[in-house]
């Protein structure tokens, strides 16, 4: 069974992901400014406006991810283009009967949340196709700056590859601890991963060892 260990990740309060896309501000500004033309019922206008205004922060409330929201540029483009396409189609219609427009906005919103969840999780799962330390570039949904995710893949095809991967993991951990400025961080002793134990080390035992530290 392929296992995945994600390392060196920073937990942060995030506001959204789609707002990091280059066309988000322009597109959602258009959507907000034309909301009053989309419903026969005046009550739909403030509801729809609120949905659009709070889009980013509401997105993160609904993601419920156990990992930081960091998405690759490629996947962000895919999510954004899918959302813009649905929104543009909705805005191409004339005025809708009462309740229809905000309900459609909610449906697009839920689809967007699902797409972002899948995009972030799929990138993490892809790590299992690698052997050892692997890094991929992302965008942090916290502040839309460039970031990266470092993870450890267990998909090694031989004992030699596995031993090299574990040694690379130990080197990464030691380097990460040395770079840390926290005085309370003490480098752990991974005796279960040291050379005398590598010969009979299984994936399950390695995972248990790492999780204990």
Could you please describe the fold and organization of this structure?
The chain has 213 residues and is an alpha+beta fold. 52% of the residues lie in helices and 12% in strands. It has a four-stranded antiparallel sheet. Helix 4 packs antiparallel against helix 5 (100-125). Belongs to the Izumo family.
- Strand order in the sheet with the most strands: 1-4-3-2
**How many individual helices?**
8
Helix-strand pattern: EHHHEHHEEHHH
List low-confidence stretches.
1-14, 181-188
Q: Roughly how many Å apart are the termini?
A: 21 Å
The main β sheet shows up as: 4 strands, antiparallel
The gross shape turns out to be elongated
What's the overall average pLDDT, rounded?
80
User: What's the β-strand tally?
Assistant: 4
The portion of residues forming beta strands comes to 5-15%
Radius of gyration: 23 Å
Structural class computed from helices and strand pairing: alpha+beta
Helix content: 40-55%
């Amino acid at each position: 069974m392929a296992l995945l260990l994600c390392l060196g990740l920073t937990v942060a309060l995030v506001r959204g992901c789609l707002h990091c896309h280059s066309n988000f501000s322009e597109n959602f500004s258009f959507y907000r400014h034309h909301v009053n033309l989309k419903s026969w019922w005046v009550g739909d206008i403030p509801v729809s406006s609120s949905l659009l205004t709070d889009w980013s922060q509401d997105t993160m409330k609904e993601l419920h991810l156990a990992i930081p929201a960091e998405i690759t540029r490629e996947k962000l483009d895919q999510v954004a283009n899918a959302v813009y396409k649905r929104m543009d189609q909705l805005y191409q219609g004339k005025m809708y009967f009462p309740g229809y427009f905000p309900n459609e906005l909610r449906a697009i919103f839920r689809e967007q949340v699902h797409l972002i969840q899948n995009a972030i999780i799929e990138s993490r799962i892809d790590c299992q196709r690698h052997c050892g330390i692997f890094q991929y570039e992302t965008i942090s949904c916290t502040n839309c700056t460039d970031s990266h995710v470092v993870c450890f893949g267990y998909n090694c095809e031989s004992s030699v590859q596995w031993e090299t991967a574990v040694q690379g993991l130990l080197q990464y951990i030691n380097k990460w601890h040395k770079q840390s400025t926290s005085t309370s961080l003490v480098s752990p002793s991974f005796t279960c991963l040291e050379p005398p134990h590598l010969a009979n080390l299984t994936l399950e035992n390695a995972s248990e060892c790492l999780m204990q530290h």
